[in-house]
Amino acid sequence: MHAEGAGPVAIAIHGGAGVIDRAHMTPAREASCRAGLSAALDAGFSILARGGSSLDAVTAAVRLLEDDPQFNAGFGAVLSHDSSAELDAAIMDGSGPRAGSVAGIRHVKNPIELARLVMEQSPHVMLIGDGAEEFALERGVVLVPNSYFVTERRLRELHSAIAGADVESDPGPGMDVGVIVGQASGHDSGTVGAVALDRNGNVAAATSTGGMTNKRRGRVGDSPIIGAGTYANNETCAVSATGSGEYFIRSVVAHDIHALVQYKHLSLEAAVHEVIQLKLGRLGGEGGVIAVDCAGNIVMDFNSQGMFRGARDSRGRREVAIY
Amino acid sequence: MHAEGAGPVAIAIHGGAGVIDRAHMTPAREASCRAGLSAALDAGFSILARGGSSLDAVTAAVRLLEDDPQFNAGFGAVLSHDSSAELDAAIMDGSGPRAGSVAGIRHVKNPIELARLVMEQSPHVMLIGDGAEEFALERGVVLVPNSYFVTERRLRELHSAIAGADVESDPGPGMDVGVIVGQASGHDSGTVGAVALDRNGNVAAATSTGGMTNKRRGRVGDSPIIGAGTYANNETCAVSATGSGEYFIRSVVAHDIHALVQYKHLSLEAAVHEVIQLKLGRLGGEGGVIAVDCAGNIVMDFNSQGMFRGARDSRGRREVAIY
């Protein structure tokens, strides 16, 4: 913990990882993705630069990514087998730590804001389905029809996934439906997320997703699972993950990175490398994480073909990248 | 990993932790609780003793505890604010590792069996709500009406909780609704669980719960969260937790115990002590865990007034205890 307001600030964001088909990634589409990432990155950074909290920074960045139909969260989320959107999100404040999480959300425009309401205005950490939406209504959140989330592009992806892959077929050892769908449709089955460190030494993490194209109704991935897809602790770091969620849950990826830093005293970079490149890779899991530690070190690492990502800090670093 | 079939075997079970009102715990009721624990313990142990897997042992033990109305899982689960039962469960096989989890279940008699089906017959780890029950139907599981789970005793507890505590009131720092409800109703707001080591050196963990009396619809505690309430890894240990779930999620309790054993090389006993007595206690969380490591050491520890529990191993240990 730094003296009040004296520390460095840093933020990293991701817009999903996976199979990114370069044939479909025209210069125009790549520029548009980079613009979306830049907007979220700079919105979060500007909050940190003017002394705002890491919690506000990750909320703002993820909300913008949720509203951008290019990314798989909120508006433009990938669709379930029944052509509807089912959304999951989690947020964690490294101070406390405190956490909020929602899963199976169908009518809340910005799931990350509902996760934050759960953290701040309920005694609970996780609310799911209709009960979570009832809580949203009680807190004055205006619900939207599920069709709000559905875009033409995601419907096309769903139809091509249904034609090319059977969601219920056994994907065999070392492969999961997410990877198959990603390959079949030529699109990532991503997530969005942000991690940040503020001037007061507080870290925070936020993750939001529509899950996998053509997913079974009720399937929950790692994003809303505290410790798997989202984790923050002021003693070490904040982590947001994206990738084949089932592998990330079984490996408790985000908390494992924290534990390697805290108990084995690895650097954040070494801890992320061990979990993503070595352990997850050995199991066959694909994806990546963004992470920031309490000194402001940013790590963005993935074992997939690409990860939409961006990083910016008070030392002058600013980058947006895909491959 | 021991040579095929050569290793020791061990099992531990719990039937919840929390405020156990000795005034309500008559000798007859205590004997009945002990008999229920003994039946589950011995059923699991007999599977291990005849060379069965730890996965089968924890499934059998938890299924019996789910069917016993004295414990808060399956038949006789505590009731939500709307007088219905909403059930969560998770199972993890330390070999792989593999995991399955369900939450918000309303019509499956034995949620632990559905969690195991998710692990063994779907590419997913976690399914929730209607989607999970659709999967159950597809796998030939016969659904039961929600009224199957509801007992007179749990209805009385719910009414007394509603009269004594407002589920939506802010419980203040260091307290959660689970604790307040536990205090108000004089009953534990528990969980059931089992951990086991089989002859082949494989560990497994299983946890099942009805959550908290008078809980908000859609609230999910730590039981079905891999890493929080349930975790198993053949490199270290298997853990099943019970207590104030929100604290256990934020602290990623089960994976933290694993990490202390793996990265700090603590004994299982020291790791459990650090997480339950020191870290969880500092945050205000109440409850306990049962754990078994790959050498057959059993640890049962709690910082609450009591924890219904039992342990048995191939060295001749057999105990059932409450306080």
Topology:
The structure is a homodimer of 323-residue chains.
Chain A: E1 10-18, H1 27-49, H2 54-67, E2 87-93, E3 98-105, H3 111-121, E4 126-128, H4 129-138, H5 152-164, H6 177-185, E5 192-197, E6 203-209, E7 219-220, E8 230-232, E9 237-243, H7 245-250, H8 253-263, H9 268-283, E10 287-293, E11 298-302, E12 306-313, E13 318-321
Parallel strand pairs in A: 3-4
Antiparallel strand pairs in A: 1-5, 1-12, 2-3, 2-6, 5-6, 8-9, 9-10, 10-11, 12-13
What can you see in these coordinates?
Two copies of one chain form a homodimer. Chain A is an alpha+beta fold. Chain A has one domain (10-321): (Glycosyl)asparaginase (Glutamine Phosphoribosylpyrophosphate, subunit 1, domain 1, 4-Layer Sandwich). Helix content of chain A is 35%, strand content 24%. In chain A, strands 4-3-2-6-5-1-12-13 form an eight-stranded mixed beta sheet. In chain A, a hairpin with a 5-residue loop joins strand 5 (192-197) and strand 6 (203-209). In chain A, helix 1 runs antiparallel to helix 2 (54-67). The longest helix of chain A has 23 residues, at 27-49. Mean pLDDT of chain A is 90; it is low at 166-188. At the A-B interface, strand 3, strand 4, helix 4, strand 7 and helix 7 of A face strand 3, strand 4, helix 4, strand 7 and helix 7 of B. Strand 7 of chain A pairs antiparallel with strand 4 of chain B, so a sheet runs across the interface.
